[in-house]
């Protein structure tokens, strides 16, 4: 299992957020999130979950590997799991 998390530095709605991804499969990511973090599947952002700062340490303790944002994105792309952004962009993550 390789679930990766970047540092909670992404501001949105008065909080800081991390991105949580898998470089193996989305199924692996969904299973980790459901079992370890309790974040609902509807929060899935197409290729990642946004994780609030207060859950960061819990995610790491549960087995998520802390990496820098560039490494997270690089590994997501290398695995072929990166979703292309829409032309409209998104508000968070």
Can you walk me through this structure?
- 33% of the residues lie in helices and 22% in strands.
- The protein contains 3 helices and 5 strands; from the N terminus they run βββαβαβα.
- Strand 2 (10-12) and strand 3 form a beta hairpin.
- The longest helix is centred in the middle third of the chain and has 12 residues, at 26-37.
- The protein has helices spanning 26-37, 53-61, 69-78; strands at 3-5, 10-12, 15-22, 49-52, 65-66.
- The model has no long low-confidence stretch (mean pLDDT 91).
- It is of the alpha+beta class and 93 residues long.
- The chain is globular, with a radius of gyration of 12 Å.
- It has one domain.
- Strands 1, 2, 3, 4 and 5 form a 5-stranded mixed β-sheet that branches.
Protein topology:
Elements: E1 3-5, E2 10-12, E3 15-22, H1 26-37, E4 49-52, H2 53-61, E5 65-66, H3 69-78
Parallel strand pairs: 1-5
Antiparallel strand pairs: 1-3, 2-3, 3-4
The biggest beta sheet reads: 5 strands, mixed
The number of distinct β-strands equals 5
Report the C-alpha radius of gyration, rounded.
12 Å
Structural class: alpha+beta
Q: Tell me the fraction of residues in β-strands, as a range.
A: 15-25%
Low-confidence runs of at least 5 consecutive residues: none
SSE string, helices as H and strands as E: EEEHEHEH
- What does the overall shape look like? globular
Span of the ends, CA to CA: 23 Å
Instruction: Give average pLDDT, whole number.
Output: 91
